[in-house]
Amino acid sequence: MQIYLDTANLEEIHEGFTLGVVDGITTNPSLIKRERDRLAAKGEPVEMKDVLNDILETAGPEHPVSLEVIGTTYADFVREGKILYDTFNGVAGNVVIKIPINPVIGESTQAQYDGLKAIHNFAKQDIPVNCTLIFTPEQALLAAKAGAKYLSPFAGRVDDYLRKTFTDNEFDKTDYYPGGGFPEEGVCYHDDGIVSGIDLVARIVHVMETHDIEVFDGSKPAVLAASLRNARQVREAAEVGADIATLPYPVIGELLVHHKTEEGMKGFVADVVPEYRKIFE
Ligand code: G3P
After folding, report:
1. By alpha-carbon position, which residue is closest to atom 1 of ligand 1?
2. Where are the beta strands (DSSP E) in the chain?
3. Which of 47, 94, 193, 221 registers the highest number of CB atoms within 10 A of its CB?
């Protein structure tokens, strides 16, 4: 499974690529806002073009970087996606245009098809698209058929919805929610049959494995598990066959932690004898 960083934070991105485990970057307007606020709080001038150039250059040609459109209609998506691609793909050839599966907000159904149409428009130009805000396997299927190279199910937000809707439990959004669902009296809480964020990812993986869908470059659409917030969720995303997991930077740190690793370290450090230490002097 590939690992992407889900951040626009330049410090995290610079540091992340020194680890040798980061395969790409995903951003969205909320993550860009967070980075704008971080830089502004440091009193640094925020020139967004420079921020994006830095992200793309740091990632380099082998590591895709998703940049999201900001509008809500087909015309917006086509115009903004083209601006993003034309302005920034020249930096390192790694821009992926991120488009929501369905941009409708509120009652209007006018724009319901606009995400798909825009995905298809870019796919026809061989421009890679990451389809975002996927909450059902059927949305993923349509995005794949329209030509999206990456399918982004938002696992953590499914878990948020289920625990908010069906339990009175206080929770932090980084808390683990069982990938197998939360059973009560033999029945799992579910959102139209989806029992957890990881279940959503698993079902999309299954659909992609079952059907031969190819995108413009002959590859199969990659299932990019997004909105992952803790280590165990990442383990489960890997177990169910997600092609990519995009993670907040601190979650990579969490993946490294085990109490027996720490206990072992204590023992090794305590057992260093002077004769051995001398070797290193
Ligand atoms: O990549 C999607 C991600 O940024 C959303 O994460 O934690 O806000 O649901 P979250």
Report:
1. 226
2. 2-6, 24-26, 65-68, 95-100, 129-134, 150-153, 183-184, 187-188, 222-225, 244-247
3. 221
Measuring from atom 7 of ligand 1, which residue has the nearest CA? 227
pLDDT digits (tens, 9 = 90+) for 196-235: 999 999 999 999 999 999 999 999 999 999 999 999 999 9
CB 29 within 8 A of CB 70: yes
Ligand 1, atom nearest to 173 Cα? 7
CB 99 within 8 Å of CB 93:
no
Instruction: Look at the pTM and tell me if it is higher than 0.85.
Output: yes
In whole angstroms, give the CA distance from residue 78 to residue 75: 5
E strand or H helix that includes residue 15: helix 10-16
Cβ atoms 251, 274 nearer than 8 A: no
Report the alpha-carbon distance of residue 55 to residue 70 in Å, rounded.
19
The count of domains in the chain is 1
- Provide the residue range defining the domain that includes 201: 2-278
Residue 271 belongs to domain with CATH number: 3.20.20.70
